[in-house]
């Protein structure tokens, strides 16, 4: 139990770190260069992890790494910035907070897992809480901005579920797998940034600090923790933790920029935090949950040694052999010693499901938030 909550806490550090993106971007980075900021954030971090791990994709993983990098980085970053520029920050954040609902749907479609009731309730409550925190009266709904926000959210939701479905190649750790995605995603953003924004910006001292923070903490470390969590925890539980990103951004706006938090916003905080806690509670067992391990029972072998077997299965995995053994024992003991109806009910072997591998300087103004 303690280990599970440690994994949850480490995973939660990722969206909490992403919540610093707006403050760092607005206060330290050059104005009007969001695509280059995304490329500079992803590509150097990926190359650094690649140099440390010295592992390259092999075989089918060239295509998988490229697709995951496109979904989690290459498509998500540009779509996020389009939404942020065309929508009020609060509206964009609420669209991002809808990710758990998309993850729940994709979990059923791609992983054949049915999320538990706590996860579904959390997926509904988290966006509502975030909306109370970040939405302002008169928030605009630009159609292109909404489409970009939803597309970006869907891209990262699909990337999260596929990360869980495919796992990692044998012998490859999370650092190496993350490096592949960051490099692939960064390489996809560079030509788009060059076509839209021209040459990359020349950073000054504050910008270097901002890029360093976003690249090392907000990307390299945060994505390693995020993908680690996706491999260890049910993805519905991981996705609901994403609400920490806009909540962190709003908190920093209050602490650093002096932006006020109304009673309604505080109520939204309570709802969102409660949803995240609810989302981590175990739900009713559902078939195919890769995070669960088959129950084990202790059985006594004829020699008196204790043998661990999946509940309801025979040692050695042969139900036919077990049935023959029961027939011989009954023949020796007499018909009265055998309850045939009970033996037939308990003789079926339950096979455990295989586990899946596992922008300008800002002053006091309404908080805008970024989901990564």
From TrEMBL:
Residues 300-309, 340-351 have a biased composition (Polar residues). The keyword rRNA-binding does not apply. Residues 9-134, 144-278 form the EamA domain. GO terms for cellular component: membrane. Pfam families: EamA. InterPro entries: AA-Vitamin_Transporters, EamA_dom, EmrE-like. This is EamA family transporter. The lineage of its organism: Bacteria, Bacillati, Actinomycetota, Actinomycetes, Micromonosporales.
